[in-house]
Design goal:
Low-confidence stretches: none
Distance between the termini: 36 Å
Largest sheet: 6 strands, mixed
Strand order of the largest sheet: 6-7-8-3-9-10
CATH class of the largest domain: Alpha Beta
Radius of gyration: 23 Å
Number of strands: 14
Strand content: 25-35%
Helix content: 25-40%
CATH architecture of the largest domain: 3-Layer(aba) Sandwich
Mean pLDDT: 92
Shape: elongated
Length: 314
């Protein structure tokens, strides 16, 4: 990493709502000027963490520091450093994007003319200019998300917090927004993204924390996380009929496997060599193989390997 300073330090952070523990003793550092991802399914504690960094919530115990300022004790200082794009965009139904963003620009310190200039610039960048005078209720979910992201781009905060920034956004816009996020980082902002979209995490984030049920399960670069699966190749086999019990113990000799109705996923080393033996084994047991894939693990596979759960409920 070189000698980068720490932008955010999360130290033994726990957040409870009544008896429910949303985040359980989380500790991690986010370095200046990196794009850092919190990856996990909905309900895993990502949003709670983001909202606490942004001083919306207070920690139950532990603390979070933003450039050395405590989010719990110096919330006023922290708010000056942080901009957040919420998962559910915040606006009144009768707001127009242009008014909302001009107001926001004034709040973060632009004078009138400057505000108009920067708002137009950001709206054009995000493809929002043609929607500027629509009412909020007339905008699609994806367009509302862009208005939310526009607030952060106008502010250019030292730390940008983006909660599922491209959920509900079409594929073409996703790629454009990912480029915009990288550009913001290139201009000096540290970026923290919460997502359950492994493609987003792979495309944008430099380091990732995998979070599940409020706990940190893994932390590292994408390569490090993929290498953390001890048997890293993934063989996926679709078949007809049932898998006889007798074959299960024989399959276990190759590696950890998961069975979902008519699909078999096996984690192995040297997948392209092993796959031939495995197909022979299945055929010998009377299983009709329909489709075979051998691939490197995805972040989805890493997540499933670590937690036994899926990143996204289909």
């Amino acid at each position: 990493m070189g000698m980068k300073g720490k932008a955010i330090e999360i130290v033994g952070f726990t957040k409870k709502f009544g008896d429910f523990t949303a985040v359980d003793n989380l500790s991690l550092d986010i370095y200046e000027n990196e794009i850092f991802g919190l990856l996990g399914p909905n309900g895993s504690g990502k949003t709670t963490t983001l909202l606490t960094i942004a001083t919306v919530y207070k920690p139950t115990s532990g603390d979070i520091y933003v450039f050395g300022h405590s989010a719990s004790r110096e919330d006023y200082e922290v708010r000056k450093l942080v901009g957040i794009a919420f998962q559910e965009p915040k606006a009144m139904w009768i707001d127009k994007p242009i008014d909302l963003l001009n107001w926001h620009a004034r709040v973060v310190g632009y004078s009138g003319d400057e505000a108009k200039r920067v708002v137009r610039e950001v709206m054009e960048l995000l493809g929002l200019w043609e929607h500027r005078n629509k009412y909020f209720y007339q905008l699609s979910g994806g367009t509302r998300k862009k208005v939310e992201l526009a607030k952060v781009l106008i502010q250019k905060p030292r730390v940008a917090i983006l909660d599922e920034p491209t959920a509900q956004v079409d594929v073409l816009s996703k790629h454009a927004l990912w480029d915009v996020i990288k550009k913001l980082r290139d201009e000096g902002t540290t970026i923290l993204i919460a997502t359950n979209d492994m493609f987003e995490a792979e495309r944008v984030c430099e380091r990732i924390a995998i979070i599940y049920k409020g706990r940190l399960r893994a932390l590292g670069t994408i390569e490090e996380l993929k290498d953390s699966i001890p048997r890293g190749d993934v063989i996926e086999i679709q078949f007809d009929g049932l898998l006889p019990e007798s074959l299960r113990s024989e399959l276990e000799a190759y590696g950890r496997f998961e069975l979902r109705s008519n699909a078999l996923t096996i984690y192995v080393e040297k997948g392209e060599e092993k796959v031939i033996d495995i197909v022979d084994l299945l055929k010998g047991g009377g299983v009709r193989v329909k489709k075979i894939m051998v691939k490197e693990p995805s972040l989805d596979d890493v997540f499933t390997y670590l937690t036994g759960a899926k990143l996204r409920e289909e």
